[in-house]
Design brief:
By secondary structure, the protein is α+β, with helices and mostly antiparallel strands. About 45% of the residues lie in helices and about 20% in strands. It folds into three domains: about 120 residues, no CATH class; about 50 residues, no CATH class; about 60 residues, no CATH class.
């Protein structure tokens, strides 16, 4: 059956232009990875699992449907060349329109994004959010002046921290005890400089910045003095037990 199908599609009895045109019916097969990925979400809380599986296989079998359509379209062409050319031409024009539409929309979105960023820059905003802006060589968080901040070197460190050449800031609040040159983001809201370890903006009393590290999977922190979880020092076994109970 499959051999007969391909013999029909690529038969030399058809002019080459039609063989190429008829294969345009099969072009949507190139979208198969995207279609398959989308159908995985059919299984998000389905009401009827049997019907969901049936729909899943029915949708993902669409390349077979296209092959059958292309096969019968080639037979139609043998009887009526005009009618046999309509469907593949329609598919080709639809795909071309889709490509042109996507390219046009992408270019328009990029242009609008650049325009928005330029407007935000003119208004003095720093970073991706509207939390901080620089006006008249002064730094503001919303409409509140960040006292002492150096506008020329002020920058966003992450979503809650900021910095300038001499000072770290937590949501616009100057943290004068932090060494700005050695301050780093560890992960899971833990930070450190050469002297101390921080959980958010709070000093983690007793933590050793030299040996302090955070497990990327469990977010359990450790140093030479012990273990920490959610900013609290606890016995390592106790932390593991609490995680297992959750």
């Amino acid at each position: 059956m499959i051999k007969r199908l391909f013999q029909q599609l690529f038969s030399k009895d058809f002019p080459i232009w039609f063989r190429i045109l008829n294969l345009c019916i099969l072009l949507p097969i190139l979208l198969y990875p995207l279609v398959f990925f989308t159908t995985i979400f059919f299984f998000d809380n389905p009401e009827n699992l049997g019907l969901t599986w049936l729909l899943f296989f029915a949708v993902n079998a669409y390349p077979i449907y296209l092959l059958i359509i292309a096969y019968f379209n080639s037979i139609l062409f043998q009887k009526n060349k005009i009618l046999g050319s309509i469907l593949p031409t329609f598919v080709l024009l639809t795909l071309l329109y889709g490509v042109i539409y996507v390219v046009t929309e992408t270019r328009q979105n990029i242009a609008e994004s650049i325009k928005r960023e330029n407007e935000r820059a003119k208004q003095g905003y720093i970073g991706a959010s509207d939390d901080f802006k620089i006006l008249d060589n002064k730094v503001y968080r919303y409409d509140t002046l960040v006292v002492g901040a150096d506008a020329k070197t002020f920058e966003i460190f992450d979503w809650q921290w900021q910095k300038d050449k001499t000072t770290m800031y937590y949501k616009g609040k100057p943290m004068t005890d932090i060494d700005v040159n050695t301050f780093v983001d560890i992960r899971a809201n833990y930070y450190k400089d050469k002297n101390k370890v921080y959980f958010y903006d709070q000093v983690l009393v007793g933590a050793d910045p030299t040996t302090f590290e955070v497990d990327p999977m469990t977010h359990i922190a450790k140093d030479k003095n012990g273990c920490y979880f959610l900013g609290e020092q606890k016995d390592c076994k106790t932390i593991l037990k609490e995680i297992e109970e959750e």
